[in-house]
Amino acid sequence: MLVLQDVHKVYGKNKEKQVAALQGINLSVDKGEIFGVVGFSGAGKSTLIRCVNLLERPTSGKVLINGVDLLTLSAKQLREQRKKIGMIFQNYNLLHSKTIFQNVAMPLTLEGKPKEFIKDKVTELLSFVGLEDRMNHYPEQLSGGQKQRVGIARALATDPDILLCDEATSALDPSTTESVLELLRKVREEFGVTILMITHEMNVIRDVCDKVAVIEGGKIVEQGSVIDVFTEPQTEIARSFVRTVLNDDTPNSIKELIKANSGKTYRIIFKGISTSAPLLSDTAKKFSVDLNVFHGMLTELQGIPFGNLLVNIQGDSEEIARAVQYMRDQEATVREVTQDAL
Question: What is the pTM of this model?
Fold first, then answer.
């Protein structure tokens, strides 16, 4: 559906003063997927998303939509392709001198659509986002969440295949953020729209995305399904983002408890069906070991149960090894935690 192949974006013509905003970006977003790109300020998120519709033209690489490389199109062909790419912004980008109806109608007006068609389409979209009673209001009369709903309605006016979301919730409070994310889920379900969003908020990734890529210094350093990146992040920056919503830092009191106990301590991560199984109980029954849960959490990611526990195991070293292997055979991730790593 949407593929970025080895995309580079360099600013500046003087080689000594050039800034590489994007370096070798490779992304593939499937049809109907919600794909999130997360990174700190200055990581290259906004440049990346603007390269998708060529608001920023990549220095090199390919931007493929349904197999068509946008970089090879004429200006006229690109305009036609852009009609199938909607975009919503952090600061809404609404025209304050126009009514809500007129703002949503703008893309259709520019296309020269008949007035009756525009009226029906805009009314339908405002009803979809829950603002049919505000069509004659002006942006300054709306809350931030309502303005973003207008932005979403406007982005859907041309029946896009792809919706780009540039920090769409970062200016909103948590409750309003959740309502906007719920609306984006509804957009995907009812219109089959593919969504690419950038954000610095990992809770947004957790709540709405199917897959995630982590960007740092203009490079994608990690990507995968949300459940995989959240449960087993491979890079330090991914771990730091995950900790903002799933803090697995070990409290000092637990560290002291681990140091004071004999045996070995393991971090046990389990997800999906293994979460509901009595894993620790079964392990204790099958092997001559004692298990003591020091610290942990149970939660849900994308509707999938997830557990992360610190467990002390005492017993004969061979029996401990057998118990650990048994838990791994049950699809749990088991890693020994040394005192130096605490």
Answer: 0.86
Is 237 strand, coil or helix? helix
Tell me the C-alpha distance between 45 and 81, whole Å: 22
Instruction: Point out the domain boundary residue: 189, 211, 243.
Output: 243
Contact 287, 319 (CB under 8 A): yes
Largest CA distance in the chain: 81
Range of the domain at 301: 252-341
Q: How confident is the model at residue 342 (pLDDT cuts 50, 70, 90)?
A: low
Helix, strand, or coil (residue 156)? coil
Q: Same domain, yes or no, for 216 and 258?
A: no
- Please tell me whether residues 63 and 207 are part of one structural domain: yes
Non-local (6+) Cβ contacts of 282 within 8 A are none
Residue with tokens 């909607």: 86
- Residue range 152-204, pLDDT digits in tens: 999 999 999 999 999 988 888 889 999 999 999 999 999 999 999 999 999 99
Task: Identify the CA nearest to 164 among candidates 22, 50, 73, 6.
Answer: 50
- pLDDT value at position 340? 59
> What length is written for the chain?
342
> Residue 14, SS3?
coil
* Dist. CA 115–CA 81, nearest whole Å: 23
Looking at the structure, tell me whether residues 110 and 236 fall in a common domain.
yes
- pLDDT per residue over 93-126, tens digit each? 999 999 999 999 999 999 999 999 999 999 999 9
Number of domains in the chain: 2
Of the candidates 243, 264, 282, which is a domain's last residue?
243
Same domain assignment for residues 45 and 155: yes
Separation CA 244–CA 202 (nearest Å): 7
pLDDT at 273 over 70: no
59 and 205 share one domain: yes
d(CA 201, CA 236): 16
Where does residue 79 fall: left (phi above 0), alpha (psi -120 to 50 degrees), or beta otherwise?
alpha
Residues 311 and 214 reside in one and the same domain: no
